[in-house]
Specification:
- The chain has 13 helices and nine strands.
- It is α/β, with parallel strands linked by helices.
- The protein has a seven-stranded mixed sheet, with helices on both faces. A two-stranded antiparallel ribbon has the order 8-9.
- Strand 3 and strand 4 form a beta hairpin.
- The longest helix is centred in the last third of the chain and has 16 residues.
- The chain is globular.
- It starts with a strand and ends with a helix.
Length: 297
């Protein structure tokens, strides 16, 4: 089955786009077929991977508004690299096209038609607006990156209330968890925030993986690369690979964190993207929907 991950947080600067790009690259390195959908008008995922805003009607907006085939829109990211994946970028007409989602957020459900992807990752804007709402109405899971600092941590409850509203309309939506980012183990305040998160948030609501501060994130962005493609041995690269493995274990695609990547055959398409052969569906995530108001104060 295709899993649609909404990467969402109303606070900016918490590593949302960084997570979308590098989690996507890591999942692809673990033999998953990945598409990143840039749903943020600021187009950070598009720019961060070295693309400019595409011409009018050549982005995700034309897919849900004009029902254009997404395969005619997507672009391969580093097709010669083992960390290649696809991106559906933001177009020059995206601001106008998104207005239709205000009236019909369900139009984004067109992503359900693209079952050739194992994971579709939606990068949302840093706001609790109609774009984030449309993403949550479409997603099967939501990941919330949270910077390991006080102000980022106190914003959790507001987002979870927003999530709960979307979940009432999308019963398939699950909260995959909070992913702590920019963790500096040498900073006392950071250790206190991490400890507070571990004490406050239920264990099944918090990723075991923590994303460290790493200068390679900034350097890779300036080179328009994922951190895996820029510095495979960096701490940040290893952390996102660990996060991807944790996600595959949760989704029953890996038996444990150290198991070899799923063995899937595939071939290279003429456009340079890696096309995996179809496989059977994986079991549904058995974790129940968390009742956040009862579990997070």
């Amino acid at each position: 089955m295709t899993r649609i991950l909404a990467i969402a947080n109303q606070k900016g600067g918490v590593g949302k786009t960084t997570t979308a790009i590098n989690l996507g690259a890591s999942l692809h390195a673990l033999h998953q077929n990945v598409l990143i959908v840039d749903l943020d008008p600021q187009a950070y995922a598009t720019f961060g991977l070295g693309f400019r805003k595409t011409s009018i009607h050549r982005g995700i907006g034309s897919v849900f508004q004009n029902r254009q085939d997404i395969h005619q829109i997507t672009q391969a990211v580093y097709p010669a690299s083992p960390y290649s994946f696809d991106i559906c970028p933001v177009s020059a007409s995206f601001g106008t096209e998104t207005q239709v989602l205000k009236r019909h957020p369900e139009y984004l459900h067109i992503l359900y038609e693209y079952s050739d992807y194992d994971y579709i990752i939606i990068d949302t804007p840093p706001a609790l607006n109609f774009l984030t709402y449309a993403a949550l109405l479409t997603a099967t899971e939501c990941i919330m990156p949270v910077q390991a600092e006080f102000w980022a941590f106190v914003a959790i409850n507001r987002f979870l209330n927003f999530f709960s509203t979307a979940h009432k309309q999308n019963l398939e939506l699950r909260f995959e968890g909070i992913l702590l980012t920019m963790v500096d183990e040498n900073a006392q305040y950071c250790r206190e925030i991490v400890s507070q998160a571990e004490d406050t948030v239920p264990s099944n609501c918090l990723f075991g993986t923590q994303i460290p501060r790493d200068i390679c994130f900034s350097e890779s962005q300036s080179h328009h690369k994922s951190i895996l493609n820029y510095s495979e041995e960096s701490l940040g690269s290893q952390a996102y690979m660990q996060c991807a493995r944790e996600l595959l274990v949760r989704h029953h695609k890996l038996p444990n964190m150290t198991a070899p990547a799923p063995n899937r055959g595939g071939h290279i398409n003429p456009n340079g993207t890696l096309q995996f052969n179809p496989t059977g569906d994986t079991p549904q995530n058995a974790n129940p929907i968390l009742k956040f108001k009862d579990k997070i104060k």
